[in-house]
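User: I'm curious whether this sequence folds into something compact or stays loose and floppy. Could you predict its structure so I can see for myself?
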Amino acid sequence: MAGLSRKASVLWKELSAEDLRAKAAADAIVVLPIASMEQHGPHLPVGVDTYQVEAVCKAGAEAAAGVDVVVAPAMWCGLAEHHMAFGGTFTFDLPTYRAVLLALLKSIQRHGFTRVLIVNGHGGNIAAMAAFLPDFTRETGLKIAATTFFDLAQEAMAPLLEDQKGCMHACEVETSLMMAIAPETVKTERLPEAFGMLGTSTEAILRPKIGRYRPFRDMTETGVIGDARRASRAKGEKLLAASAAALADALGNTEIWR
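Assistant: Here's the prediction. I'll summarize afterward.
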């Protein structure tokens, strides 16, 4: 109805250029979601990481009381060579990934923003982000911080889970989140076969004591690490709320930028 004011969106893509100039002038924090487009077992779409990081960033930005935040469009392609054998996957090589991400950061800087929080939603991007961060800070002049949302929220996630302590792959966590975020994309009839590498820890996957490249096809026939049979929409709603709250707390933490 005419005359009714609408709440301003936190999403960059929904704002005008004028809106974004005002955000920059107000020293808003830019949240830059990064993700992947890769196989997620027989029951989930290939866009899982992108769906999830977009949802967490939007909810976290909206929950960050007293903090001016704008959420940039998600960078949907990442480093996913280890999933290529299953099909359905896009991947960058490392130099291309670095170049594209740096170009996005330089665009943000040229518009007058000074602070960027990169929020990652894909395990395969973690090591690269840690390596890039010093150079990106020097090359752009931005204050840049980075986190992976399921690591940031792991402590809050753990009590909600039955068979895991944190996020694995196409697992109890990711399947529950997708049931809450985009339930129409989940093939529930395939859940009985959606498990693999049961008993594996998150630490063993992401932080092995001795590293070696192994494609997922050699590790799990289903493309799943964990047990999606434990997933539920109710659990996914709680996991989304926990992830958003952890991100909102981080956005409100001024010590990050000191």
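Summary: The two ends are 44 Å apart (CA to CA). The chain has one domain: 12-252.
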